[in-house]
Amino acid sequence: MRSQTGRRAFAWAVLTPTLALAQPSASTPAGPLGLRWSDPNGLAPTTARELASQLSERLGYPAFDETAVDHALSVSWQGSAEQCAVELELVRGVEVEGTRRIESPSGDCRSLVPALLTVAALLLESQNAQPEPAAEPRRPPPAPPTTAAPEPGNPPTPYPSSEKEAAVLVSLGAELSSGLAPKLELGPTAAITFAPVRHLRVGAEGALFLRRQYGAAPGLSLDHQAARLLACGMPLTGAFGLGLCGSAALHRFSSSGISLAYPEAHHSTVWAGGVALRAEWRLLRHLWWVGSVGADITVRPLYFYYTPAPGGETILFREQRVAPALLLGLTLELP
Q1: 10 Å Cβ neighbour count for 216?
Q2: Out of 20, 176, 207, 317, which residue is the most buried by the measure of CB atoms under 10 Å away?
Q3: Does residue 119 sit in the same domain as residue 175?
Q4: Strand order in the sheet with 34-38
Q5: Of 78, 99, 129, which residue sits at a domain end?
Q6: Mean pLDDT of the chain
Q7: Which residue range(s) make up the domain with 193?
Q8: Quick check: is 314 in a domain?
Q9: For residue 145, is it within any domain?
Q10: Tens digits of per-residue pLDDT, 167-223?
Q11: Which residue(s) pair with 270 in the sheet?
């Protein structure tokens, strides 16, 4: 027959799987715990009042709260005198949160009392030690985005920053030239320039000087077209730009005699290199003025003459080797 010490050792061995019941669920808040006692066959060697008293003495505070209804520890004595068992259930309302069963193969229900007290004490201590979930701190509402105020003395400009250069400029205007014809020439001009890199302009210009008559009879009529390729360095850029340009130009002249016995038409071309001072200034967001002043230097100056009836040559005028030119155009900036 087993000794009292053996029965206690057996009860502690049976207690090992019940420790899981003493671990509170992460979702179970701490609170008062009631006691539900069930002993339909009169097997319990103790009473509910004695169990509560012993647990309160062990814990140092009241073990159960009689007013707790929803949350309780249910202790149910089951089996028979030959096969005694006690079942513990942690219940909340109608839901069972955990169940453990302690059995005594010897049929001695009294040997289950120490294990029952230990499991119940662990459970109550874990329930009372579990902190209530801390309320999540309220986060302040996000501050509305703020717009940086413009610095004093730097009001916003209605057009792009002066650091941005115009990529493409298309100009329509007029050109005034002197030295390549007997008198000043004035004609419409068109130009387009690009900015492939910062502080650089490359482009092309074209001018048309309409036909004019020079000299009394006998004389000649003359028209003049010019095409020019240019490249400019622009050390000053932005809303106002300033730079120096170099160019290569081709000038084409068409002339015919007036009041001659045998009038003939002639076409002549001359190459010229040039330098000019270029200026750009912005009027509106995409509207500019572009102007240049410079001179073309001809490779070989032309001279214009006619042949009178008796023979020989009568020279009307010779071109100047250096021909000043002035260009001014209203300009559109393309995106």
Answers
A1: 8
A2: 207
A3: no
A4: 34-38, 71-79, 84-92, 95-104
A5: 129
A6: 78
A7: 168-334
A8: yes
A9: no
A10: 899 999 999 999 888 889 999 999 999 999 989 999 999 999 988 877 666 667 888
A11: 251
